[in-house]
Description:
Chain A is α+β, with helices and mostly antiparallel strands. Chain A has helices at 4-15, 21-25, 62-73, 99-116, 123-126; strands spanning 38-44, 47-52, 81-86.
Amino acid sequence: MTSDSAILAQVREALDDVLDPCSVGVGNPTSIVELGLVEDITCTDGQVRVVLCVTAPVCLMVAPMFEAIRDATSAIDGVGSVEVNLDPTVVWTTARVHPEHAERLARWNEARRAAAAVEPQAWRAVL
Amino acid sequence: MIDGKLVIDAVVHPFNLSVENQRVNNGQAHGKVVVDNLWGGLHQWNPPSLRMPRDIYEVDQSIDVVSQTMFLETDVDIAVNHALPLHRFLRDGGVSVEKNLEASERYGDRWLLYASADPMDGLEQALRDLEAQNAQLPGRLTGLKLYPSRPHLTRRGLDESYRLDDEKTVFPLFERCLDLGLRSIAIHKAVPIGPSPLAPFKVGDIDVAAGAFPDLAFEIVHGGMAFVEETAQAIARYPNVYVNLETTFMLIYSAPGLFEEVLATFVRWGGYEKLLFSSGMSYAHPQHQLDLFRRFQFSQTTLERFGLEQITGEDKSLILGLNFARLAGLDVETTLSAVADDEFARVRRENGLAEPWSHWRKAYPSDGPDDVGPGFAHLAPVDPGVGA
């Protein structure tokens, strides 16, 4: 029988493969773990519970994320059930992004700016 | 007015959120999910004193009550109403075309109006809808409100979306807007309305449209909630692209550091002239945001990081109304004098600013508990289907 701690480790790993839909949309796929959306993970007697937060109360991608979490974790050996909940009291800010990813994100944004060759307030020259 | 300057709230939503108006599509409670989210925003992103019980939020919000809220409880002089095409969620679209008519007839000097015409209904139908609304409100339409996508009708639904730069299905609508004297296209972006694809909510289709129609303004509604960098570049490049800060402005209370960062990004790349204040009423009370913004200053760290000068009263006035006045072609003095002695101004002079939501609570007395907890209780999928 797989221990709860072993299951927990695998669940954590699996969640790092669940992508935030908006990051995929913008072309910079980021996992919900890297983005700081996973508030808590527990496992008791194979019953896994994941608590998620979202970046904004108006986020309507919650249902697809719940589904992706269940898809990613329910087949893990020893998992009896997966319950996913949202903690609406968490106010997400960029401080929740994992530091390594925050650095990658900053480099990615800088590269995009350089590629676009846009100067600040370039519109003034158009008028 | 604030410090004698015109204040325009660039999006005020007199929603119909009544239970009767909420749609269920193939077992998916799309209408209820939208109301959950709006009410969730009201509860999560506002202080407890400015929240409302669900039973008085989930109502058909009348033009009278919303007008009283706006013009007796806030420093806002002019409100902008968008008729909405959210018929997949709410039977009448969310804010019906009739509410534009009512706002115009009853309080014409106080409201600016956006039509609703949806390219996803087909170009011909969209043109007919636009022209019909213009015929009902000749010379009164300031702009057109668009949504780029519809929610799937089934759990594995097909994409229903379009791009603003579609020359065949969208550009003719913009041409007709110009013919009819409309000045602005307000497109919902950055906040995906699921279940639907994400791509339509990105801002990459603004560029070509803005370049092709330099005489139209393009408002990126909810700009700053996602795709901040792309939005910043769009307002940097095109004179006629603006960020409509609906929802983003709520961050000033709920996540002030994030608000400061997003605002600084937009000011650096676009300048103060490209930003429009929107409260998003009814999921926030405008006066709270205005009070916080009046006191707002960038931190020294942010000023250095973004290479900015400290924000001034003049800069704030641009965001709070003068930019929208320019976009809409309003003469500021004429606009202010038209409302200087109307029924709202007279009551304001006599009684001062009324308590937040006091008119709402009087019109819609609550039978429920004053605060029934977080607004996300129903956000789990209607049909979980997958997993344990």
